[in-house]
Amino acid sequence: MRARTSVEVAKRFLEQHGYRVLREHVPVVLRGVEVGEVDLVVEDSEGRRYAVEVKAGRLSVSGVRQAKVNSELLGLAPLIVARGYSDEAAHILAEELGIKVLCLPDLVAVDEVELYSIVRAALEDTVLELACSLSALEDPGAVEVLRAMASSEGLEQAAKLLGVEVRELEAKLADMRRRGLLPPLVGYRRLRAYASALLTLKRLIQGGAEPEYR
User: Fold this and answer.
1) What are phi and psi of 7, to 5 degrees?
2) pLDDT tens digits for 113-132?
3) pTM surpassing 0.70?
C-alpha cells in the first residue's frame, strides 16, 4: 500500500511540475522476458518522455542504477522521484549519469479531498488487480506456483519447491503476467504477499482449508 500511495503522490507532484502522465506500471521486456518495471512514463511540456522510478524513501546508489538501466531499455530519459538522497554517493552518481531527480518534501501538503483520492486510487488498484487475477485460481499450474511463492523467501527457494530452475520459474511468472494472472509487481516480497492474498481468497471462496503460508 505504501508503494501505491507513493506513486499516487508522485503523479500529482509531477503534474504540478508540468509533466503529463502517459502510462503507469510499464513492464521492461528484454528478449521476450520481463526483467523489470517502471512506475510511470511521463511527458514534459517540450514533448520529451521519461521513464519514472518512484521511491517511497530516499534514493540510494542501487536505485540510481536501476533507473538508468530501465530507462535505457525502454529508450526513454530517466527521472526519479524520491525524498532526497540516502548519501552523497547516490547524489554524485545521479549527476554523473545525467539522471533528473525530483525531491519530494518530507511533508507533502494535501487537502482532505486529495488525500481521499490518493488512498482510494491505491485501494482500487489493489482490489482490481486481485479481481483480474481470480482466473489464476482455476489454473492448477498457476496455483502450484502461487503456493510455492507464498511458502518461500525468494525465487531460488520457490524454484526448488517446484523442482525447476530459477530461469524456468521466471518464465512461468512472465507467462502468468502476460495472461493477466499476475500484475506487474516488482520485488519478491510483493509477489509473495500477492500470492498469499490470492490463496487466502481461494480458501474463502471454496470454504475449504488451505495450508498456512508464512
Assistant:
1) -65, -40
2) 555 565 666 665 655 565 55
3) no
